[in-house]
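Researcher: Structure prediction, please.
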Amino acid sequence: MSAYAPKIVVFTCNWCQRGGTDLSAITKECGMPAVKIVKSMCSGAVSPAHILRAFKSGADGVFVVGCPLGDCHYISGNYKARRRVKLMKTVLSQLGIEPERLGIALLSEAEVAKFKTALTKFADNVSSLGSLSGTKAGVN
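Model: Predicted structure follows.
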């Protein structure tokens, strides 16, 4: 990762990332001190308003973490989250914000290594884009 540490908001499902995986410790272990973890009961409950509010509040990137497809506690919340992230990438693009600033990973609690890899890759991509507050685009 570059010297710039992007501010990232991670919306995480209560069910797939709850027990032994302390996400705060993982983000610090990966060298990402500017990551804020926001727990949701389901990734499908993360609304477009939540995503836009995160960007408006200064996030350089937003990462949604949900259960693997077929394993949602609420049956289809992860499918809803996946569709919503795809839609929001289009909305962000129309607002002048790079769609790469929004990401999603559908992982079980046991896939800690995959979570670290996915978050690190996402943070590297956001870092290469630079600070969102430093651009003329934004969410008003």
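Model: Helices lie at 23-29, 48-56, 77-94, 112-129.
Researcher: Thanks, that helps.
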